[in-house]
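Re-run requested by the PI after the first attempt was lost when the workstation crashed. Everything re-entered from the original request form. Ligand of interest: 6-O-phosphono-beta-D-fructofuranose.
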Amino acid sequence: MANAVTTIGVLTSGGDAPGMNAAIRAVVRTGLAKGLKVKGIMRGYSGLLNEEIVDLDFFSVSDIISRGGTILYTARCEEFRTEEGQKKGAEILKRHGIDGLVVIGGDGSFNGACKLANLGINAIGLPGTIDLDIACTDYTIGFDTAINTAMDAIDKIRDTSASHERCSIIEVMGRSAGYIALWCGIAAGAEAILLPERYDGNEQGLINKILESRKAGKKHHIIINAEGIGHSASMAKRIEAATGIETRATIIGHIQRGGNPTCKDRMYASIMGAKAVELLCEGKTKRVVGYLNGDFVDFDINEALAMKKDIPEYQYEISKMLVHR
Ligand code: ADP
Ligand code: F6P
């Protein structure tokens, strides 16, 4: 059967995430294997509006599967939120012969892809964000690397926290979602994990918990605080004042967004990249690729954007059960 598209474009948008390069490579090489022309759009929608479009061949994506970041660069673009910006973007794509587009990013980027699809460009979204905050999927490109980086950092902080018998408040990324905090908090054996989805602001409860576990023999304390709650430095000051235990705050920050992607991120991103191209070849548009219940699946973008997601209750319960109470 003939491909429904002839020339595909690929862009990365929103925050970068380790594994995006593996997805780009898979899009390029699957596209070429299927006889398509492949073009890279630099700097997300911003580069699209500036017509920063380059031809990609097999070797353009050599030596990138193991690298974090995105070789296409990424950006956020206010102009593209406007109808004029979207029309201009679609015209530029058409002028370059691009009839299929793969957008790697988060919900915001999918909204943009949907607008281009409405203007006649077949568009597929791939979930790329360290935050895991995309409702239609149990996996997002970059999350696995980010939690491993954060876990490693927490393990290191634990060493110094234990040596000084301190309390350490460690803030991890996630925007308004607590998935990174929950995963690396459980994996690093944190005493408390504060999630934006669950935290009731009861700092006195946290202080009591620290005091009780100290009394029971605990020599140091690891508290994971999600970015969505924030204020780790002032929290540390208040905890130190209330408990008399020396307390330090560490915000791990952008280190979580970089680094060589894990095997899982490389593998899943490769599969998702290939699947996006297959969907375009079949004439599909306005779809988002996800990973649910062990399968790679795809959804209508609007349905995907309307889905809701929450921290799995069982994982949250476990996080509380595994610590001193
Ligand atoms: P993410 O894709 O990670 O959610 P953002 O929310 O920052 O990141 O969105 C990335 C870009 O997608 C924005 O800078 C903008 O160019 C585009 N975008 C976001 N929302 C829309 C929208 N409703 N319509 C068109 N484009 C959008
Ligand atoms: O979405 C990824 C993320 O790293 C969030 O966890 C964080 O809130 C945000 O991006 C930070 O964005 P910036 O690149 O603007 O610092």
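Saved to the shared folder this time. Residues 13-15, 45, 76-77, 80-81, 105-109, 111-112, 115, 129 surround adenosine-5'-diphosphate (ligand 1) (CB under 6 Å).
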